[in-house]
Amino acid sequence: TSEGQLPGAAAMGTGTPPSPSGTAFEETRLHVFTLDYPHVQIPFEITLWILLASLAKIGFHLYHKLPSIVPESCLLILVGLLLGGIIFGAEEKSPPVMNSDVFFLYLLPPIVLDAGYFMPTRLFFENFGTIFWYAVVGTLWNAIGIGISLYGICQISAFGLTDITLLQNLLFGSLISAVDPVAVLAVFENIHVNEQLYILVFGESLLNDAITVVLYNLFKSFCQMRTIKVIDIFAGIANFFIVGIGGVLIGILLGFVAAFTTRFTHKIRVIEPLFVFLYSYLSYITAEMFHLSGIMAITACAMTMNKYVEENVSQKSYTTIKYFMKMLSSVSETLIFIFMGVSTVGKNHEWNWAFVSFTLLFCLIWRALGVFVLTQIINVFRTIPLTFKDQFIIAYGGLRGAICFSLVFLLPPAVFPRKKLFITAVIVVIFFTVFIQGITIRPLVEFLDVKRSNKKQPAVSEEIYNRFFDHVKTGIEDVCGHWGHNFWRDKFKKFDNKYLRRLLIRENQPKSSIVSLYKKLEIKHAIEMAESGMISKVPSSVSLSDYHEGKIKPLSPTEMENMREILTKNLYQIRHRTMSYNRHSLAADASEKQAKEILIRRRHSLRESLRKTNSLSRERPVLAFCSGFC
Amino acid sequence: WGQAQMGVPRVPRGSASVTSLLSLAVTSEQIEHLHRRFKQLSQDQLTIRKENFDSIPDLEFNPIRGKIVHAFFDKRNLRQESDGLAEEINFEDFLTIMSYFRPIEMNMDEEQLDRFRKEKLKFLFHMYDSDHDGKITLQEYRNVVEELLSGNPHLEKESARSIADGAMMEAASICVGQMGPDQVYEGITFEDFLKMWQGIDIETKMHVRFLNVDTIAHCY
């Protein structure tokens, strides 16, 4: 009662004090301190979840060996299981199951966006045929194979599964055969296989979304329809094309719009990153609105945007975009795995030895068979055939994850009386692939001596080589009168230069990829040097006046000596410090004399190009660094 | 195969390049196509000279046109013992150059693959090393980068030079590693070149698909 409330005592209030419509005696005093949980419940819980996820991540890395043995995804699921167990034990009811809407609308897009934005486009398009082949035909193969074989098992009355129809089995097959990009990313991130292999598995996991969406909706509708006509099957096939191509078109369209928008943002640099995120998210939800493939839309949007936006936005915005994207995707991924763990605990299960074990068995068998057979066919068309090792890793890397998890929760229970059985089976498969395959893939990769990605890559030389070789190939193709891949790439480049770049990029200068890569590396290097505090150490009034006058005066020998000394001293330190995490840092310890010479010349040319090309002139720290330095 | 096809010149069986070509599954169909092309370029003569390459319009736009044409006449690529440039090449030489661009076969063993890779890399090396001294010096590298970027009127020579310098530095670090303060890195030898590309399968890009042969070559 209100009389019992003393000032200073916390009141577990419902927020509003009881209305003083009663007697004066019952009037409440002023609350000095109140607690109002329901007011902030939702944001509070969300924040706590995210905080928990991040703290868990810190925890894993405290013991530094752990992430290399067990992928983070497994640890996160375990944490989720623990949490789920606690909640279940405390409240005696199933913990909040991860809402499929939350997953599909909020948690999945950041991950796909991050992956799509940083996808190596060149490699992706070189392998596009293979990726497409695996994604479409492979998923179809798996879905139908698993569905039919499970149906065969269900017919055996001893297992008590005879009430599951063929269509239900096919639906189950289609949702469980989808290779999951989140899981693939989480596991492959640590094992560093060569880029080609990575792009094959990862590209497949992205592209198979289209076919998964189509098959899932198709079989779900079929399950609910009374009769199935041939026309429905044709409608299904047409649907696939619409879903896939429609998604990609929406993505590309919005990507162009985004690029065009960023052309005009030079006055409001601060919100540039926002456009990138808004347009890509818009492409995702627009595609979802039309029941097209959202994943393909957001991937296409990111890949399109990437090329043009990078040249329009400032360096700071670019960095912001990069880091924010990575942060969002990391948080999403962590949350997804924790939720998967939490949702596992509860009363949603029905265990049936036969169904579960055969599901797992068939998943593995059909995946292996599928990869093997498909590779034999596609190797005929590939210029670099895939070896058995590659095939094994591709098959083994076919991990299932949160997408099939969410899809199974979306099944309408009215049509699927055995839904709980499906949920259990899906969970078992996911856990198996994430835990067993995730943990063992690293030793297997080492055992099989799969080609790993080269850490110490000659970045600039490789870029030069690539461009050089493109021209050689085009030349040779012209000489022998043959139109190949390069012809189309060339044509696209010409079209790009003539129309697209003029439209979408603010200060359009014909750019060479070599030069832009080089400039990027230089700026990165320069910023690192600046950050390490080198600016303050080098006062040089001579060069300052040089800069303002716009002339290059030759520096006196003593000044040169001075500079060289400082350069070499600090150059070595920087390189030493940043080598470990900077993939693009140049040579470790070049010869001193050469380093001095080359670096001075570089500073010269960087300064000159800074003056002439407007796009870099807004970079104040780099300018200050250079003017104070050169 | 010299007799059955009409117009395909009789090449002596013993010649090394032909046997190597035959042993690596360049089909007679492909050779026929190349021969047709050769005849177009040479205007029905038996040999081609540098001037004949001017008749390929698309090649005009290629920034490294000079190096490509040069490569055809480079005696080192033609597997001749001598050095320098040939004046003219016949069909056999033409095929020899084309053979550098064969795709990898599935049934090759390790040794063959290795030889294959070395051959292709050697071809590339010769393109970079224009003065035939067996080393890619800084100047030659700069030359390459300048040519590559020559299609771009806005770029200055300075940028091209700095880029080449940066690339040389990378090469130096990979090939020689730690260098003493007085050491000068003279140039990239072929061994260094191989070392640079060790982990990276760049030669896998070095092929032209002869499979889908379209005679669209009526580019006159």
Describe the structure.
- Chain B: It holds the Pfam family EF-hand_1.
- Chain A has 24 helices and no strands.
- With 630 residues, chain A is mainly α.
- Chain A has a domain of 349 residues: Na+/H+ antiporter like fold (Up-down Bundle).
- Chain A is globular and about 90 Å long.
- The N terminus and C terminus of chain A are likely disordered.
- The N terminus and C terminus of chain B are likely disordered.
- The chains are: A mainly alpha (630), B mainly alpha (220).
- Chains A and B meet through α18, α20 and α23 of A and α2, α3, α6 and α7 of B.
Keywords:
heterodimer, A: 630 residues, mainly alpha, Na+/H+ antiporter like fold, 24 helices, B: 220 residues, Recoverin, domain 1, 2 domains, two-stranded antiparallel sheet, 4% strand, disordered N terminus, disordered C terminus, EF_Hand_1_Ca_BS (chain B), membrane (chain B), EF_hand_dom (chain B), cytoplasm (chain B)
Overall 3D geometry of chain A? Answer: globular
Fourth-level CATH superfamily of the largest domain in chain B:
EF-hand
General form of chain B: globular
Helix-strand topology string of chain A: HHHHHHHHHHHHHHHHHHHHHHHH
Main β sheet profile of chain A: none
User: Main β-sheet of chain B, in a few words?
Assistant: 2 strands, antiparallel
The termini of chain A sit apart by: 78 Å
Helical coverage of chain B, percent range: 40-55%
Class by SSE composition of chain A: mainly alpha
How far the N terminus sits from the C terminus of chain B, by CA atoms, comes to 30 Å
Overall number of domains of chain B:
2
Radius of gyration of chain A: 29 Å
